[in-house]
Amino acid sequence: MKFNFHGTRCRKMAPACGSRVVLNWMRRSGQRMAIADGHRFRFPRVGRSELGPPRLGAHRSLCTKTTIGFRTQMDHKVPPKEFKWMPSNLITENFKLGDNGHVCMVLNREIQVPAHVVRLLWKNAAVRCAVDGGSNHWRDFVVEQAKSKRSNTNEAAPLEPLDVITGDFDSITEETVDFFKTTPKIHTPDQDATDFTKAITVLQPVMNQRKIQDVVVFHDTSGRLDHVMANLNTLYKMQKDNCNVFLLSGDSVTWLLRPGKHTIQVPVDLVASQRWCSLMPVGAAAHNVTTTGLKWNLYHAQMDFGGMVSTSNTYATEFVQVETDSNLIWSMGAYDFEEKVRQTPKK
Ligand SMILES: Cc1ncc(C[n+]2csc(CCOP(=O)(O)OP(=O)(O)O)c2C)c(N)n1
Ligand SMILES: O=c1ccn([C@@H]2O[C@H](COP(=O)(O)O)[C@@H](O)[C@H]2O)c(=O)[nH]1
């Protein structure tokens, strides 16, 4: 069977059902090999040699949690689920999540995250994936990095290769297909879910088997609002799979806070420079939200769209606590804070 690719019949990539490919991979997991319609590919082993020498704190997961259900939590018959988050692992240090590494994923927007952050998160990833048109942007990044390497005396190591490209392939260009011709491609034609959601679903069995919980996503909040909203929706969809998805843009990090008690350790530079942070009740109201460590705190407050949302908030301390009975989107300013500090007019 063939499928349409930019209006032409394409023989290079016959349609592959993501789950079938992953099942093949699971069957052959001894070899860590997957078959994507004749293409064989390996998800690389995560070993000491790939991750380099252990670094201080590299063993820490960004999030730890207990396994107590939430149904009776807010009346405190049982203690609330606890989550600890260390966004510095994405912003200033380590650049690795979880003991078994993380998935790195590139969506279809220009990569605005600072190049050194992208490089380190990519290097430390266990699985590297580009989603449809995201592969065009990854190609641009690879080419740009190769150029700056040539013009720079400080040699940077080459970027690790992509493990897989997924998508309905309506955005990847012929040039990009050619550029990544040896990279396995998994076709996800379903038009009832976004390519981003489908990409995580395709990788889920691999993540389960290798005990990877975290997905770091290069996206951007510019461009189409429907894509931005759909990307937030993916955070909600994936929480069922006990999977943490972090959206990284040029100046923000965003993830979902599930019902429970969250402690977020904020990089001190962000506290000092009073960068923005926000709590948004997307999807459903939260009826009982209490925070500490913010400039504008909430006390057993109701949050909902059309009612109260907490945007343009900032930090009172390094440790922010949020206790909530419902999902909330947490988004915080990051990356360009040095720039912001420089731009602040002197009083
Ligand atoms: C109720 C409903 N609304 C809209 C759609 C259409 N739809 C939802 S997700 C999706 C796929 C989007 O693909 P993606 O690659 O994420 O975005 P693209 O840039 O191709 O629009 C489509 C077509 C649908 N299936 N059902
Ligand atoms: O403006 C955009 C466009 C796309 N995305 C995300 O990328 C994937 C893949 O997009 P394609 O257009 O199919 O290549 C899509 O599912 C979105 O999650 C985006 O964030 N912003």
What keywords describe this structure?
single chain, 347 residues, alpha/beta, Rossmann fold, Jelly Rolls, 3 domains, 6-stranded mixed beta sheet, 10 helices, 26% strand, binds thiamine diphosphate, kinase activity, ATP-binding, nucleotide-binding
**Mind telling me which CATH architecture of the largest domain this is?**
3-Layer(aba) Sandwich
Which cofactors or ions or other ligands sit in this model?
Answer: thiamine diphosphate, the ligand O=c1ccn([C@@H]2O[C@H](COP(=O)(O)O)[C@@H](O)[C@H]2O)c(=O)[nH]1
CATH fold node name of the largest domain: Rossmann fold
Distance between the termini: 68 Å
Task: Describe this protein's structure.
With 347 residues, this protein is an alpha/beta fold. The protein has three domains: 10-75, no CATH class; 95-250, Thiamin pyrophosphokinase, catalytic domain (Rossmann fold, 3-Layer(aba) Sandwich); 253-347, Jelly Rolls (Sandwich), CATH 2.60.120.320. 26% of the residues lie in helices and 26% in strands. It is built from ten helices and 20 strands. The chain has helices at 18-27, 48-51, 88-91, 115-123, 134-150, 174-179, 195-209, 225-238, 268-272, 337-343; strands at 3-5, 8-10, 33-36, 39-42, 63-65, 82-85, 103-106, 127-131, 164-167, 185-187, 214-218, 244-248, 252-257, 260-265, 277-280, 286-292, 301-303, 310-313, 319-324, 328-333. The protein has a ten-stranded mixed beta sheet, with helices on both faces. A six-stranded mixed beta sheet has the order 5-6-14-19-16-17, with no helix packed on it. Helix 6 (174-179) links the parallel strand 9 and strand 10. Helix 1 (18-27) packs parallel to helix 7 (195-209). The protein is globular. The structure holds thiamine diphosphate and ligand LLZGTKA7. Homodimer. Keywords: ATP-binding, Kinase, Nucleotide-binding, Transferase. Residues 260-328 form the Thiamin pyrophosphokinase thiamin-binding domain.
